[in-house]
Design goal:
The protein is mainly α. The chain is built from 24 helices and four strands.
Length: 558
């Protein structure tokens, strides 16, 4: 009787939302809002200190001067920039393309969440509507964020990172559905290959997603277990490895020429300067050649660079000192290279040696640094998800980025395009831009920042209980899919915590879309349990009735 009453009540409410029209209109409305937020920003792409590392390889490649790595930046974003400039013909095309990808990412966020709902048992209309509203609000935090819009207005990989991140997570969820729910071999192989390939593409855009690639690989490895044909078990993993290999060797076929690879080792020393100075330097005999060993002089120069960095830590609150000063402004690396007589390879060896020595000799200090960084993620700030818009002074933004774009010898066509952009930077049109900000979303972000840790804690506690119980087996797959989606964010956070610092706001804003998707899934998952009553015992019967029913399921209900 209870099930019959539930089905009758659903049929009465169906006419209110025929064919899922209301959810569709709501999502389109959010996308339109996202477009408005982006249109309030200038169409001129902004630049900063990192821009030249991505822009120079693209300009040189298009000029026939070779595809040369600059400042240790990887090849994918410069290659995409080259394609945009080749087709678009000017720098405005960069902003147009990145905005389009940003809007597409909003739609894919919603598609990923909707696809994941297929793993859940059928629920009553009230629960469906609540989780729809919650997911829509979390989508709005991403879609209407002025911070995301500003990243899309900048010549750096974060401008299109959210799109690749959303496509990657959509393929990950679709792999779970195809492999374990529908058991469709072709779809499982296609989505599995796309998952690993896109995970590696995200890594190429931002190396901070390094551990996320490992977690994606583990998901495909997990697909090899269970009762199924060998093709559906191992095909996705094999396809993913092929996609990875293609992307790995593609830059060689494009003629990508790597530089001295000093960016990572210099970053590791700059970030962990305090921990390195707690260790003991190597002893080098007087007059002996030092083949890349961090000796007493290395430590003395590093200590000199650290002192002023600690006096003015800037925005590095958790770290306690300004690493940008050590890495870029102190002259430490050029000074120690000259004094020791090192080449680039020996400098890299010395930096890696100092970093790993810190792990061996002062592991407690290294783990303390790691813990401080992880606390920034576990207890986030409201601004990580959304912040009320501040005015963007176009003159200031362009004046800040212009000194980092030097004159360069390019082909006549590229020189014309590049000089046109530099002239716009020198004489910008317009003065002040006011991105649209919604105080209600800022308040929602503050609530979410306060509750996000507890949502994750409750979810994992529930997952442990479900895995240990014989009941609720149909909820396990949906829960494991959430774990896979969250692992992408966790992998990103762990990589940054080990290598860099989460004090950089850009890092936190970049992983926010995937994290919001994971939180939307967590809330929906917990709502199924909250409104399901004795769902752990009865969901199998309800699912069977829903599957045999010939009545169509509206978009609102699903």
């Amino acid at each position: 009787m209870r099930l019959f009453y539930t089905m009758v009540r659903r049929e009465r409410l169906n006419p209110l939302f025929p064919s899922g029209l209301f959810p569709l209109c709501a999502v389109i409305g959010v996308m339109i809002g996202g477009l408005i937020v982006r249109l309030w920003l200038p169409i001129v792409p902004l630049s900063d200190g990192d821009t030249w590392g991505y822009l120079r390889p693209a300009l040189h490649w298009l000029s026939g001067l070779g595809f040369q790595q600059t400042y240790g930046r990887d090849w994918l974003y410069p290659a995409l920039l080259a394609g945009i400039l080749k087709i678009g013909g000017d720098f405005h095309a960069i902003t147009y393309v990145q905005r389009f990808l940003g809007l597409a990412g909003i739609l894919i966020f919603w598609a990923a969440w909707r696809s994941w709902l297929r793993l859940l048992p059928v629920q009553g209309p009230i629960g469906h509507r609540i989780r729809f509203v919650v997911a829509l609000l979390l989508l709005a935090l991403y879609a209407l964020s002025p911070q995301q819009a500003l990243l899309e207005n900048t010549i750096r990989p974060e401008g299109m990172l959210a799109f690749f991140e959303m496509v990657y997570l959509y393929c990950l969820v679709s792999f779970f559905i195809a492999r374990w729910k529908l058991r469709r071999t072709g779809s499982a192989i296609a989505f599995g290959a796309a998952t690993l390939g896109l995970s590696y593409a995200v890594l190429l855009l931002k190396p901070s997603w390094g551990f996320a690639l490992g977690f994606s690989f583990l998901c495909l490895v997990a697909g090899g277990f269970g009762q199924a044909t060998r093709l559906i078990r191992f095909g996705p993993l094999f396809g993913g490895v092929i996609a990875f290999v293609i992307l790995f060797f593609l830059p060689k076929s494009l003629g990508f020429q790597k530089d001295a690879q000093l960016f990572l080792p210099c970053t590791l020393v700059s970030i962990h300067a305090e921990q390195i100075l707690e260790t003991r330097p190597d002893v080098i005999l007087p007059g002996a050649h030092n083949p890349g060993v961090p000796d007493a002089e290395f430590y003395e120069e590093l200590a000199k660079a650290l002192r002023p960095a600690k006096e003015n830590p800037g925005h590095y609150n958790a770290l306690g000192f300004d690493i940008d000063y050590i890495q870029y402004r102190s002259g430490f690396f050029s000074s120690i290279t000259g004094k020791e007589g090192w080449n680039d390879r020996e400098l890299a060896i010395a930096c890696y040696s100092a970093y790993f020595r810190a792990w061996l000799q002062t592991p407690s200090s290294m783990f303390q640094k790691l813990g401080r960084q992880l606390s920034v993620f576990l207890f986030p700030r409201a601004g990580d998800f959304y912040t009320t818009a501040k005015s963007v002074d176009l003159h200031h933004e362009l004046a800040t980025g212009r000194p980092f774009l030097p004159e360069d010898q390019l082909s006549p066509d590229m020189q014309k395009i590049y000089q046109s952009y530099l002239q716009i930077l020198d004489r910008p049109e317009g003065s002040l831009s006011h991105p649209l900000g919604l105080p209600i979303l800022a308040r929602l972000a503050s609530y979410l920042a306060w509750i996000s840790f507890w949502l994750q804690a409750v979810f994992f506690a529930v997952m442990i209980a479900i895995c240990l119980s014989r009941k609720g087996r149909t909820l396990r797959l949906a829960g494991f899919a959430i774990v896979a989606v969250l692992s992408a964010t966790y992998g990103n956070v762990l990589t940054i915590a080990f290598v860099h610092s989460l004090d950089v706001v850009r890092y936190r804003v970049s992983y926010a879309p995937g994290f919001l998707l994971g939180l939307a899934m967590i809330v929906s998952y917990l709502l199924v349990l909250a409104f399901g009553g004795s769902i752990l015992g009865e969901q199998n019967g309800e699912s069977k009735i829903a599957e045999t029913s010939s009545a169509p399921v509206s978009g609102w209900r699903r």
